[in-house]
């Protein structure tokens, strides 16, 4: 029996537990909970990948992870200590056990990756990624690099991990990041994805929708016709990142003299 066959997935059922939920005494609390469920956040991308969500920062990369290149294809461990690109998955399916690794943080920038065979990944002198190390040294460390919503994985030789197009081997041979080096690290770690979105109703949606919502809320014209600023709205993204979104929105509305708080 291989190491991967030991994985078991089951549901815990407690003896005497009723299958029907007990009727609650506080009806007003039930109504509040129903309202919260309607506002729950759903990660559609994670749903398409069997619940495995994309890491967007270093702190997300911990525990069981899968390394995705392309669309729903993951790095797969082979029993000879090498790696290849696995077969494409159907929408809604997560990675197979051979495609799951364990991520360990070494420091604030670097991680180590252990395959299901209990060996650590490393980069060899020829740039091939292997998984035969029993301990973590310098060559077993990788750095996830995030930029502009994309990610690449830099090996200890300072080259970026990619899939060799000739034989689907996993290699680190290029110092620059192109389409072949862009990947995603996905994790199944528990996160508060179903938490209620506490953002005001006006701030839910795209920045274009947010601006429209605030114009509707604060417009002062009796004819109810919307006055939307037609100038380039790229400044809104920068303002949101810098925490000055409200001020920028007000400035844009003031130019249209469409806000009750404008001077």
Tell me briefly what this model is:
The chain is α+β, with helices and mostly antiparallel strands and 263 residues long. It is 19% helix and 21% strand. It has helices at 27-38, 44-48, 207-218, 234-242, 245-255; strands at residues 53-54, 63-68, 75-77, 83-85, 101-105, 111-114, 120-123, 129-133, 143-147, 150-154, 160-163, 170-174, 184-187.
Could you explain the architecture of this structure?
With 263 residues, the chain is of the alpha+beta class. It folds into 2 domains: 46-187, Trefoil (Acidic Fibroblast Growth Factor, subunit A), CATH 2.80.10.50; 201-255, no CATH class. The chain has 5 helices and 13 strands. It has a 5-stranded antiparallel beta sheet. Strands 3-4 form a two-stranded antiparallel ribbon. Strands 7-8 form a two-stranded antiparallel sheet. Helix 4 (234-242) runs antiparallel to helix 5. The chain is elongated. Residues 7-15, 18-22, 34-39 and 193-197 have low confidence and may be disordered.
